[in-house]
């Protein structure tokens, strides 16, 4: 059995609660969660859901990462991410100054590499993103500060996509300071890229960051503002607007889940489903739909329908809806990986331990770095180990691979 001296999420919550001299009854009341559920989580008998962690973090005035144990610094060293992450931070030092020593290629050559970074984001390939992003940022900043007109706008648009890809890495690794820095750099380039849909994308990412801080009401306000940016395009049936609005509605649904507001969550989900129906197809965000179109469609809505019920604690219903998810061939690895991670959580909560392990293995085969670093994976693995009468070798191997807290 792999040994890991780090505490589980439940143990971290208990330790911090005691440090603050708060009883379980007081914390449950302040966080508006079930007392019995809090007890089970602290004792390691129930995995901590994202909603519970968010509620407890907000009640105690600390970031979510206080309890998830991120950013897993030892794993960054083990997987050789620490060096590229340092390079990424260094590249963000400059966003508005031309430098004589920076040589740049043509925008078409740079654009080809930006597309590779976007592909790596969809595959949750953190190593490739962190390796490619720093030199691309240097080049694109140089172009954005030396070119004029369309070329300058194009450089800023490419920067937004590189920043967004790096944001996904930073967020999933729990690097909250880097998330904030990347959002700032995105904001600078969005304002100079002359594309309202990139502005909506920035709002979408900004709202995403509130999952870590617990400021969910701020996230919902950000989404409301973003929807006004694209409303004219939605009325005109423009594909970029429908995709942008659909993703914003799905983000709003998850924010509502974290606040325990099931009615609002399901209402936002219905709006997203309606927008997907107006599209009538899956939009990939590449090819003929344009380089700045967010991917969206019925499959993404179906995945979120299951996730909504899981976050609300309706695990059996979540699994019923999960059976209705039928992704097309070649569907995005990052979304499918997340889907199987969420499905494993619901299966563990309903006692389907063998199925939960199978789902985790699917997530690992589809998006291995996501399946290693996602904090709920570690919670699920720990829950499987504690609930197993006999720990199978595959579970031992998975726990060792992702260095789960046992």
Spell out the key features of this protein.
406 residues; mainly alpha; 434 Repressor (Amino-terminal Domain); disordered N terminus
Helix/strand structural class:
mainly alpha
What proportion strand?
A: under 5%
User: Largest sheet at a glance?
Assistant: none
Helix content: over 70%
| Elements, N to C (H/E) | HHHHHHHHHHHHHHHHHHHHHH
Radius of gyration: 21 Å
DSSP helical segment count: 22
Shape: globular
Count the beta strands.
0
| The number of domains | 4
Cα(first) to Cα(last) distance is 9 Å
Q: Could you characterize the architecture of this molecule?
A:
The chain has 406 residues and is mainly α. It has four domains: 7-69, 434 Repressor (Amino-terminal Domain), CATH 1.10.260; 70-194, no CATH class; 212-331, Serine Threonine Protein Phosphatase 5, Tetratricopeptide repeat (Alpha Horseshoe); 348-406, no CATH class. Helices cover 72% and strands 0% of the residues. α10 (149-172) packs antiparallel against α11 (176-190), α11 (176-190) packs antiparallel against α12 and α13 (216-235) packs antiparallel against α14 (239-258). The longest helix is centred in the middle third of the chain and has 24 residues, at 149-172.
Topology:
Layout: H1 9-19, H2 24-31, H3 35-42, H4 50-60, H5 65-68, H6 73-78, H7 82-91, H8 107-122, H9 126-146, H10 149-172, H11 176-190, H12 196-213, H13 216-235, H14 239-258, H15 262-279, H16 298-311, H17 315-322, H18 333-349, H19 353-366, H20 368-373, H21 375-387, H22 393-402
Helix pairs in contact: 1-3, 2-4, 7-9, 8-9, 8-10, 9-10, 10-11, 10-12, 11-12, 12-13, 12-14, 13-14, 14-15, 14-16, 15-16, 16-17, 16-18, 17-18, 18-19, 18-21, 19-21, 21-22
